Amino acid sequence: MSDTSNPQINPGDIGNWPMLKIAYQTDADKLAALLPPGIEPGATPQVNLTLYNYPVNNEPEFGIVTTIEADYNGMAGKYALGYGIDQEAAIFNSQQRNGQPKYPCDTTYFRFGDQVEAKCSHHGYTFVEFSGKSTAVEENPPQYEENEWWIKVSMAAGMMPTEAYDYPPHVVRVRSVYGTARYERVEGTLKLGDSPWDPIAELLPMRSAATAHLWTPIFMDRGINTEGALDPAGFLPFADMIGGSRWPGQNGGPKASGMQRAA
User: Which of 100, 126, 190, 207 is most deeply packed, by most CB within 10 A?
Assistant: First the structure.
């Protein structure tokens, strides 16, 4: 049986916090509408939310990762729509170098005993809230590999809209291998709030009850590599986005409400 003992940290240490992982099912057609041509919907229309506190630049970074199940070139994985983080220093270099869809976001995430609380806000809109309790420590799952898809792209410089690229769209494959130090089942309630900046509630509505768990990862291996090109013409509607996320902007692609605006 896998070890389910408590991970040990120094009192007050920002390292080795568990991640709060939440999942729910959405409409298959709405999920597919967010994927650029060349990236296909996965086996299930699942939305994944990961809330975390992880040390970056030797200080705490609170954030939320939003992904949807998606395949590329026959490989199962998760398409990243956004990394909302509270540390500006890690946003722009991650976007430019790797296409990681980071943008600024305020996240509150903590546990106190069995209670687990989380809330994410952007430009004054609270778009995710979770409240629950840890109910059981479960057997750790076996080591596993996961793919995540980012998009590295740069439109041609200039004042007017253009269909030209300085760097055409490419898929970046983030291959990670994980073990698990601790896995706790959490029972709770997920609330998605309306937001023109993070339109999860509108573009990926909940069609099932959310499941949640606390996961303390063991980082075994990670690689970030350019995997292949996407069709430049087919990608054009997806080049317009909100801030550094992959949420669709005002001028193309699947749209959110009329109040949405590009950053």
Answer: 100
